[in-house]
Amino acid sequence: MFVSHAGGEWQMYCRDTNHDFEDEEAMKKELLLVHVAHLLAQDATLNEISDLPIDMGAERSHVGGSWNWFENADDA
Fold first, then answer.
1. Element (DSSP H or E) covering residue 13
2. pLDDT tens digits for range 18-56
3. Exposed, middle or buried, 64 (CB in 10 Å: 0-12/13-18/19+)?
4. How wide is the angle at C-alpha 39 spanned by C-alphas 31 and 56, nearest 5°?
């Protein structure tokens, strides 16, 4: 539902508002490192954003919905 390509790193979340990115302990418990093939096996429509440029993000309201792209540069 939410994809970031900020700084050249891919990050995918069910929703960015579901996580407290300021809480380091929560992030250690909630976030997982997975191969993109596992995500594509669950949702092939992720291929629609495979050309998402660095420092851009994309989100959608529901699985199968249209992706809306936005600027998403790292703060650092």
1. strand 11-13
2. 666 677 887 777 777 889 899 999 989 999 999 999 999
3. exposed
4. 75
The Cβ of residue 60 has, within 10 Å, a number of other Cβ atoms equal to 16
Distances (CA, A) of 6 to 12, 25, 55, 73: 11, 22, 4, 5
pTM of the predicted model as reported, rounded to 2 decimal places: 0.76
Enumerate residues 6+ apart whose C-beta is below 8 A from 52.
3, 5, 58, 69
- Which amino acid does the sequence have at 17? T
Query: How do the domains of the chain map onto residue ranges?
Result: 2-71
Q: How far apart are CA 32 and CA 56, in angstroms?
A: 21
3-state secondary structure (DSSP) of residue 53: coil
